[in-house]
Amino acid sequence: MKNYNITLLKGDGIGPEIVNEAVKVLNVVAEKYNFGINYTEADLGGIAIDKTGVPLPEETIIKCKSADAVLLGAVGGPKWDNLAGNIRPEAGLLGIRGALGLFANLRPAVIFKSLKDASPLKDNIIGDNLDIMVVRELTGGIYFGERGREEINGVQSAYDTEKYSVPEIERIARVAFDMAMKRNKKLCSVDKANVLESSRLWRETVTKISKEYPEVELKYMYVDNCAMQLVRNPKQFDVIVTSNIFGDILSDEASMISGSIGMLASASLSEAKSGLYEPIHGSAPDIAGMGIANPLATILSAAMMLRYSLDEPDAAQSIENAVDEVLKFARTPDIYTEGTKKVSCEEMGTLVSEIIKNK
Ligand code: NAD
């Protein structure tokens, strides 16, 4: 029997509540699909600051590096808001992404049929369902380029630099093409090649890599047009690949098409197969401890973990099917609509688990 080592970073606020429900579901699929999971817990964010004085203790890095994958809840909260930037909970998050070499961020924007009403877009634009994957480069570009301020003749200016090397573009392009091969074989590379030299290199490199993937239909789009097309005709997209800064903005836009923050999963991958999986929402301090958080984004993150790091696609699919099923009759308060049963965080985890067991 295969055995996987998962490190859990429950974090702060609703983090522990939602991760516990994802673990409940993981245990059920593990039994059903005949594999074992060993869990190790480690501290990240506010809880780590309280215990050790730093948001990312060395021990956490070691436990994450030795795992097959990492599942994270969320970090942060008002208690730590007044600390200096480098010892705030969010610094722990950036630190662990760097320590694990996570260069590819995958953000699915999915609308579940039964949640169509939550989307701010009209029915005829969304169609029956919507499923876009945004692949964002995470460790290069303007967020990490040379930056500075200068003053010349009493006039202050500041600059940031967008710089990409061919190997950086090649590796993110391969992640995106591989992803497209597993989906509908359509990839849209987004850049600003009409203006930026770095975008022209991006486009040339993506074109070169496309020769390795003759089955994938590749198109290019300028970022301003893509921002518009995502709300005008989102169904045209399958996989989108883009730079760090464009991906930051477009993945938020794409995810909001689904209309419910408690439903959205994400994955960050390194060159090794391990990755870090987390919901896109934060620690929701306003509802922490009330038992009403929506655990589905974390449960869907666990499904991504099974698919992309552990090679258990059937187990992943059974979780996704169960989430689709449960939404037809039960909802946590954030996505509640009349005619469904209002359930707690814990009840939602239990319902998903029961559907998987009984299918
Ligand atoms: P947030 O995502 O935590 O919350 C925004 C709103 O959405 C809140 O009203 C919250 O109750 C609701 N919400 C979020 N997740 C929910 C869920 N699963 N179920 C039901 N409702 C949910 O964003 P925020 O309020 O801007 O930030 C709160 C804290 O989280 C801050 O300290 C911030 O720095 C941190 N944060 C962490 C991460 C992360 O860990 N990746 C990401 C974003 C924000």
Give a concise summary.
The chain has 359 residues and is of the alpha/beta class. It is 40% helix and 23% strand.
List keywords for this structure.
about 350 residues, alpha/beta, Isopropylmalate Dehydrogenase, 2 domains, two-stranded antiparallel sheet, about 25% strand, globular, binds nicotinamide-adenine-dinucleotide
Residue share in β-strands: 15-25%
Q: Given the helix and strand composition, which structural class is it?
A: alpha/beta
Mean pLDDT equals 95
Put simply, the count of helices is 12
- From the spread of the alpha carbons, the general shape counts as globular
Q: Give helix % range.
A: 40-55%
Present as ligands are: nicotinamide-adenine-dinucleotide
The count of strands amounts to 14
Here the CATH topology of the largest domain equals Isopropylmalate Dehydrogenase
Integer tally of domains: 2
Cα(first) to Cα(last) distance is 22 Å
State Rg: 21 Å
Element-by-element helix/strand order: EHEHHEHEHEEEHEHEHEHEEHHEEH
Largest sheet properties: 10 strands, mixed
Full CATH superfamily name of the largest domain: Isopropylmalate Dehydrogenase
Give the CATH architecture of the largest domain: 3-Layer(aba) Sandwich
Describe the fold and architecture.
There is one protein chain. The protein is α/β, with parallel strands linked by helices and 359 residues long. The chain has helices spanning 15-33, 46-52, 58-65, 89-99, 123-126, 166-182, 197-210, 223-232, 244-256, 296-308, 313-326, 345-358, and strands spanning 2-11, 35-41, 69-74, 104-111, 130-137, 147-152, 155-160, 186-191, 217-222, 239-242, 265-269, 275-279, 330-331, 341-342. It has 2 domains: 1-108 and 262-359, Isopropylmalate Dehydrogenase; 120-257, Isopropylmalate Dehydrogenase (3-Layer(aba) Sandwich), CATH 3.40.718. The chain contains 12 helices and 14 strands. Strands 2-1-3-12-11-4-5-10-8-9 form a 10-stranded mixed β-sheet, with helices on both faces. A hairpin with a 2-residue loop joins strand 6 and strand 7. The chain is globular and about 65 Å long. It starts with a strand and ends with a helix. The chain binds nicotinamide-adenine-dinucleotide. Residues 14, 18, 74-77, 90, 93, 261-262, 278, 281-287, 293-294, 297, 334 line the site of nicotinamide-adenine-dinucleotide (NAD).
